[in-house]
UniProtKB/TrEMBL annotation:
One of its GO terms (cellular component) is cytoplasm. InterPro entries: EFG_III/V, Impact, Impact_N, Impact_N_sf, Ribosomal_Su5_D2-typ_SF, UPF0029_Impact_C. Residues 146-191 form the UPF0029 domain. This is YigZ family protein. Pfam families: DUF1949, Impact_N. Belongs to the IMPACT family. Residues 21-126 form the Impact N-terminal domain. GO terms for biological process: regulation of translational initiation.
Length: 205
C-alpha cells in the first residue's frame, strides 16, 4: 500500500459455501478489532453449528505488528488454517477473521482436497464482502475556552480531524481522531496558535 497510515479491512460478516463428497464447508468472513473477539466469534459458531466436525480459522489483526494465527482444529497439519490464512493475505486485509465450519460427509478428502475446500469456502466468504480503506489514527482529548473554540475548530477542519465527542461545560472538552501522518503538523499548529495542549489517548488501527 502506498500510504503509510492506511490499511484495508472488511466491513461486515459474510458467508461462503463449498461442498465436496458430502462434506459441507461454510465460510465466514468477520471483521474484528482484537484477539479477544476471536474466541467469542468461534464460540458463537460452535453454538450455532454444534453438530459440525470442525471449525477451522485464521486471522490477521493490526497493521504495524500484526497478530497472525491459523488453526486447523484437528484437521491434518496445514490443511485448513493455512489455506484460510492465505486467502486473507491474498485480499490484503487486516482486522479480519475467517472461519470455515465443516460438516463431515462420510468420505475423506485427503490433504489436497481439504486444502482446496477450506481455501474455496474462505475465498467465497471474502469475495462476498466489501473491502474498505481506513486510516490509522491517533486519538487525543483537549479542553479549550469558548473564546478560542472557533480557532481550534478551524485548525481541526484544515487537518481533516474527526471529532469523536464534545462536552460543553464551563469550557469545551472534546475527543478527536487524526491520521497519524497528520498528527505532528496538527500539534505544531496548536502550539503556534497558543491553544491548549492535547492529551494523547491511544492509537487505533
Amino acid at each position: 500500500m502506498d500510504e503509510q497510515d492506511t490499511y484495508l479491512t472488511i466491513t461486515k460478516q459474510t458467508e461462503g459455501f463449498y461442498k465436496e463428497k458430502g462434506s459441507k464447508f461454510l465460510g465466514y468472513a468477520i471483521p474484528i478489532e482484537s484477539v479477544e473477539e476471536v474466541k467469542e466469534k468461534i464460540d458463537a459458531l460452535w453454538k450455532e453449528h454444534h453438530n459440525a466436525r470442525h471449525v477451522c480459522f485464521a486471522h490477521i489483526i493490526g497493521v504495524k505488528q500484526p497478530q497472525i494465527r491459523a488453526n486447523d482444529d484437528g484437521e491434518p497439519s496445514n490443511s485448513a488454517g493455512t489455506p484460510i490464512l492465505n486467502q486473507i493475505r491474498s485480499f490484503e486485509v487486516t482486522n479480519t477473521l475467517v472461519a470455515v465450519v465443516r460438516y463431515y460427509g462420510g468420505t475423506k478428502l485427503g490433504v489436497s482436497g481439504l486444502i482446496n475446500a477450506y481455501k474455496t469456502a474462505a475465498r467465497e466468504a471474502l469475495e462476498n464482502n466489501t473491502v474498505e480503506k481506513r486510516y490509522i489514527e491517533h486519538y487525543y482529548s483537549i479542553t479549550e475556552s469558548y473564546e478560542n473554540i472557533s480557532l481550534l475548530n478551524r485548525i481541526l477542519e484544515q487537518q481533516n480531524v474527526r471529532i469523536v465527542n464534545q462536552d460543553f461545560g464551563s469550557s469545551v472538552s472534546m475527543t478527536f481522531a487524526v491520521r497519524t501522518t497528520n498528527s505532528e503538523q496538527l500539534l505544531a499548529q496548536l502550539t503556534a496558535k497558543q491553544l491548549s495542549e492535547p492529551t494523547f489517548i491511544k492509537t487505533v488501527q
